[in-house]
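Anyone able to model this chain together with heme C?
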Amino acid sequence: MHTKLTKVFFPLFFLFFLTFSFTAKAVDGEKLFKQNCSACHKLDDKKLTGPGLKGVFDRVPQPAEEWLYKWIKNNEELRKSGDAYANKIFNDYGKVAMSSFTHLSDEELKAIIATIKAGPPSPPAPVATAPGAEPATAPKGNTMLYVLLGLTILFLILINVLSGVKRSLQTLVNEKDGLPAPVELGTWGEIKYWLGHNKGIVALGVIIGFLWISKIGWDALMGIGVYQGYQPEQPIAFSHQIHAGQNGINCVYCHSGAEKGKVAGIPSANVCMNCHKAVQEGRITGTKEIAKIYAALDYDPNTGKYGSNQKPIQWVKVHNLPDHVYFNHSQHTIAGKQECKTCHGAIDSMTVVKQHSPLTMVWCIECHRTTEVQTAGNGNGYYDYIHATYKDKFKGQKITVEKMGGLECAKCHY
Ligand code: HEC
Ligand code: HEC
Ligand code: HEC
Ligand code: HEC
Ligand code: HEC
Ligand code: HEC
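re: yes, here you go
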């Protein structure tokens, strides 16, 4: 038996790896295209910031491969060399300069050109494109419950089917031996019979169920008034992972208040339009979510005109301190030189924003006790003066926020 299995499996395994390594090679160009080009180009004929690339081989000067190579590598150089077509499309696209890709190797450029030639890939499986889908995370609260319920039902059906099979076999055996057919127990009877004969598994199930329910109760008790992990759904599937992560847009480009004053602020829809006038379609949600920005501004992407029926986007606030607490962003980001991610976590890898820190009084105080004040000048006259004063007062000592009075009730409470 053992040798038979290995005889079948080994070649299968080998075949699997072979196909795997082949497909891995073949997608290389696709991956490069995604990383470097897809923010501005689609492989079909739809326009983003740049033209859709379908049929580009027939449009550009021949031999097309050679021209494309030069254009992609350094389009500015090609334009400067007086290439008529290069200058024409540059003008046609409102003189928006495409990035140059001199850092890509010849092999990589050729792989990208091959990908353009191959055209758009067949649409990916629907699971991968579900709106707001998070890549491979554990099922959350409700989902977990449904999974468990589903499994239980599946399990019961399985018991039923298996006992059915067992009974049929037993009937056959009994017939052969000239005995009467076995008694019918019915579905519920079968289940009871099975439970009665598998007490170990049943006990384990009961223990797991008990622990699970206790955990829910405990979490609920500990979580009163603490919203760490709070992750509400937003009116537009705005993804920090795509904007701050993949596209490297700086946090303060959108949250300009975070370095200027008390409140970091949420950008208005006009800020979105700096890019979304041109980027009309996303790779994951297509036009669906971006259309909501247009709706908020009563903007018509076909005519490029704004209407008068504008209404602000109703973002759901994630972080909420009570009204009696004073918290100031610039005091922390500029004077205190604290990074956004210290308090907010890896926002740039979140598809949906989640509250990373507990935002409790203990949390604030713990950090004020342990964090050393950055007394190296930071260009803010007021804080430079205060820091210099404390430096004099606590000569040679470590100055924590606590030493500056950061634990005084009135500093944080109105
Ligand atoms: C920042 C946006 C941007 C990125 C990124 C970008 N392009 Fe472009 N591309 C453009 C624009 C805009 C044009 C239109 C010409 C112009 O304005 O210079 C263009 C033109 C082209 C053309 C000519 C299309 C035609 O119809 O003649 C090709 C081919 C092309 N790009 C390929 C690529 C490839 C391949 C990559 C990735 C390696 C890439 N582009 C990355 C913006 C971009
Ligand atoms: C600095 C440029 C820039 C700004 C500002 C910007 N975006 Fe984007 N946005 C992009 C780029 C680039 C993409 C990626 C397009 C792609 O390749 O999928 C994108 C994609 C999207 C998508 C689609 C995601 C997907 O893949 O389906 C949505 C929705 C979106 N942005 C919403 C917003 C909202 C809301 C704002 C304003 C709060 C905003 N964006 C501001 C550049 C920007
Ligand atoms: C393209 C614009 C844009 C960029 C860049 C951006 N954000 Fe945001 N941010 C938003 C929008 C829009 C919201 C409100 C919707 C949401 O919560 O997803 C938001 C929400 C947040 C929130 C939650 C606010 C609340 O309601 O409590 C935090 C925290 C945050 N951003 C931090 C960051 C950090 C840190 C970075 C840099 C790594 C960053 N953002 C980059 C647009 C942006
Ligand atoms: C010392 C911790 C800390 C740091 C550092 C910090 N934040 Fe915050 N942030 C908070 C707290 C606390 C709140 C809740 C404020 C409230 O509810 O009044 C908040 C709220 C926000 C909000 C929601 C809107 C608002 O202002 O209430 C955004 C957006 C935000 N932060 C972005 C940023 C960005 C971007 C940075 C980095 C430039 C940053 N934060 C750095 C603690 C911090
Ligand atoms: C990650 C560490 C950290 C956390 C968390 C933090 N702070 Fe601070 N805080 C600092 C630092 C560092 C300074 C000192 C700024 C400076 O150099 O003047 C500061 C200063 C302050 C000050 C000014 C103190 C003074 O003496 O001028 C107030 C008020 C304050 N924080 C409130 C809060 C509140 C409220 C929270 C919780 C919601 C909080 N902080 C959470 C690091 C933190
Ligand atoms: C570094 C900032 C900071 C300092 C200093 C501080 N608090 Fe607080 N305090 C907070 C924050 C933040 C909350 C809100 C916590 C929450 O909502 O879970 C809070 C909440 C409270 C509450 C309400 C409790 C509740 O459950 O809502 C009281 C009462 C309070 N603080 C008293 C004080 C007293 C008294 C002092 C001085 C000994 C003090 N605090 C110093 C940040 C501070």
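Residues 36-37, 39-41, 49-51, 53, 56, 59-60, 68, 71-72, 75, 89-90, 93, 96-99, 101, 112 surround heme C (ligand 1) (CB under 6 Å).
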